[in-house]
Fold each of these.
Amino acid sequence: MMTVFVILVSIMLSAAAAGAIFRIARGPSILDRVLAADVLLTIVGAALATDMIVNRNLNFLALLVSISLIGFIGSVTVARFVTDRR
């Protein structure tokens, strides 16, 4: 039963990552690309969290926190940059 859920989550995360990578490559503006990169970081974090749940360990907890912090700081930095330009 657990393997079915792991496969479903893997498929959903892979599809979301493919969409984010497509948006990074093809985005019409820099804001679309930055938002897609933030979404991709979130997907990586979700994959790490899923792996930790399945394996019942906390080996990647520091990495998960670091990825979340980098995504947040990057989004805030870009938002400040965009508001300063307007």
Amino acid sequence: MRLVAIVPTYRNIRTLPAVLDGLSACGLALIVVDDGSDDGTDAWARAWCEKSSERTLISLPHNQGKGAALAAGLALARQRGFDAALTVDSDGQHRLLDAQRMARAAREHVLLLGKRSESHEGYPAASMFGRRLWALGIRALTGLGVQDPICGLRCYPLAATDGIVCAAGRYAWEEEFLVRCAWSAVEIEELKIETVYQDATQRVSHFGWFDWIESILVFIRLAGVRVFMRAPTGAARGVLARRDRSWRRLQGMAVFVAGVCALCAPLVVVVPTVAFLAWRLHASMLIAVGAAIIVHANAQLFPASIMLFVVVLLALAVTRAARFLCSN
């Protein structure tokens, strides 16, 4: 199987040389995508790529986001007849050993994702929050228990994912692509890798407030497709179709949404609405409808503020109670 490594980069001239030299030393063909850097990255990468016919540089005219850079790299890889593409971030947070392991584990019909440990010391709180939030979102949208949906170390099966198009252009592109792969019956698996985070004074991150907004909008759009349009069928769930922490959190979230709805609308409207949403978003209909009935039955006895507090406690209790059903 022919495999190429794709390295998207933006203003990472300090860490990029070591990443590229390491991948090149492994004998991998390389596609470097410079996303409109203005710190000398493009000139350096161009000179580096000219030293070997196995190296290619794509220079985007202006910064378009990581998603656009990945899409450009994957398109060129398909055009050149590669079977799979290994994507590696240019900030030095992926170990060369893990990249090699992922390249060896690559299969033509599997989207392989890196899975980092959450218990690693120094894991940024913002990254942890985004990781868990998207894990919950992907569980709701696909039914898959992906533990690390935001990891950039991945191996894309190029033929199996040909035709998948994402509207997102920045960091949320990777999560949207994952969801659309599941909807297209592409098998998804995770490979445990080491967690590498540099000191806060050395770490370079281009993830900003706009990217948080984009992530929320992308999820809302995908949820709209999942709820109101024909449900994608035939998803190959593989080893990810199991109960895990994201499944527990999804049940707790379903209880919270059902409880809030029960406080705001008549039960005759709430029950079918909650049941429909739970079915479409892979939560338990029984748990969601039961929570709505319980909250509505007590809403006339206690003030709304107290009932809202009860809803929160009920959601937390369901999340904790479901722990024994999970595999991790």
Amino acid sequence: MKKIKVKAYAKINLSLDVLGKRKDGYHEISTVMQSIDLADILEFEKSEIVKVFCSGHRVPEGEDNLIVKVINFLKEKYQIEEGVLVRLDKKIPLAAGLAGGSADAAATIVALDKLWNLNMSADEKKEIALKVGADVPFCLEGGTKLAKGIGEIFEDLNVPHMNLLLVKPDIEIFTKKIYDKWDRLNFKSHHATCSVVQAIQEGNIYKIAENIKNDLELVTSRECEVINQIKEELLKKGALGCAMSGSGPTVYGIFDDLQKLIKAYKDLEGIYSFVFFSKTIDKGLELYE
């Protein structure tokens, strides 16, 4: 096998409770994470060198690029001599709260396991994923999950199909900065996750939409007032409920009326830098060999 292609799906948070800072610097959270059909496409090909080519977007270089971080980690761990060429067709916006970098890292773990015949177990893949980033273990599996700890302790959920509109203003948000401000401002959690889980278990899209909430909005919206503006616009245009994903700044709205969603998409696509009609899906990665 010389070449592998992977579709790496983005995620949103249907809830995000920040429960406190741990001694290792990470934060204890309780969140419902949900895969959506927005995806990066990655192609991996055996090579003598390590090189990542990216179309259309500025991406970090060196170890700041999670793809490179995974490649270097696996080369060292398994004493791999050869390199790999990675072609990344970037569709998930950078620093958007959608786990684009984490999805790419998860895709790299799975692709190199096959390309280099590493035969890693599921537990080994998850262990490596957690060393790379808190969202990477979820991106390996995807679907709908209640996640605790730093986001690595999972319980599977079965969410009803939902149509979404994603809106990202032309700003980038960096997760560490937002968590640092959360600590300094001494906010308290909304504890929305329990209500969202209950609504999912009931299969009630209206109750889900009513209860979605993200603690980090309290921080990010103070810096970026446009987040509240987007939420107001989505609600006026027929969203059942809306919330920010991750540390932001992407906001998503849940719609039960497809015509209202399409009209909202057309109204907002010329105003904001990224507007995407999306839906919930049940996987994090898709391989094409």
